[in-house]
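Each lists sequence, tokenised fold; shown next:
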Amino acid sequence: MAIATSIFWLSLLFVSTKGCHFPAIYNFGDSNSDTGSVSAALGPLPPPFGETFFGQPSGRYSNGRLIIDFFAEKLGVPVLHAYLDSIDPNFRYGANFAASGSTILLADGKSIQAGFSFLSLVIQVSEFEQFKNRTIELYNQVHNAAFPGLSAKTLKIKSRIPRPEDFSRALYTLDSGQNDIHYALISTPKEQLKAHITNATNQFALSTKKLYDDGARAFWIHNTGPLGCLPYFVTNYPPKAGDADQHGCVKSYNEVAQEFNKRLKEKVSQLKTLLHDAVFILTDMYSAKYSLISEAKQHGFIGPMAYCCGHLGDNPVECGKTAIVNGTQVYGASCSDPAKYISWDGIHYTDAANHWIANRIIHGSLSDPPIPLIQACDNHIVTQQ
């Protein structure tokens, strides 16, 4: 029976299929998938952000594209506009509610003071509900307008907002949790970490269920990556003796990330049991990222603790910003060849690393169930386990 099941799943990875047609993508998360929310709300990112692919800052915390951009390309839709970006947005093919610095749990005064965003997953889902209600109302107003004689303005509006029926046919992608772990590590006693993680994953399930109640049916969910392998953490919260792995990552931080991923998997399993008509695909982002980190040089990257832009350590200078160091103004410049680096600025990944990771996960081999991205709408396949 086990052999037959394995053959079935392997066949899904290699047999050519028609795949799904997702008319739109709705994304929720943090800086790993923010395409401009925080930049629109709190001020634009400076150069050299965006320099490699866009030629200028694009609201993304990278030198180029994020994993969500490669998803859009794979599914044949334009890159997602940030929901908060009011400058000539086009939401016909979806919207991005992700916000850099966001947590799953509703932000409080302490987390905001620590530098995390108030645009938590709870708020993002609330934004989506408002977006859906208002665009359906607007679509119906435009659709019912007298014809012929529609104004150019009305035609433009109609072409740039989603059709009501597309909400239930869209792909909903979620990548949250990294900042909940980050905040817990710097603010929560060790004995309370598991309780914090439980609260975060419980809220994740509630927010996901709310999206389902609003019509979402196809969910592509990422677990969190190896936080202890980020150069920022290794430099600012260095490992104690015996707490570093063979690649220089902080083992105890990665163990917290793995605990989060364990709890997240349990919650997604519960959602699958509860909501039979929806598709829930949980992708092991941790394994994808750790694989790249552990095999960095084999794939043409400099060692995993190197980063391209800015300065960490005793005299930190953020990427693209200036600071006075020992009486001298220092600029957080980028390296000469970002494509050789996994980390862009010590926290976020480069365009090249995001591209590598997207290629690693897009075919579904690291997903549960192992369904390729282009088949993430197929509940019939997903339920044949």
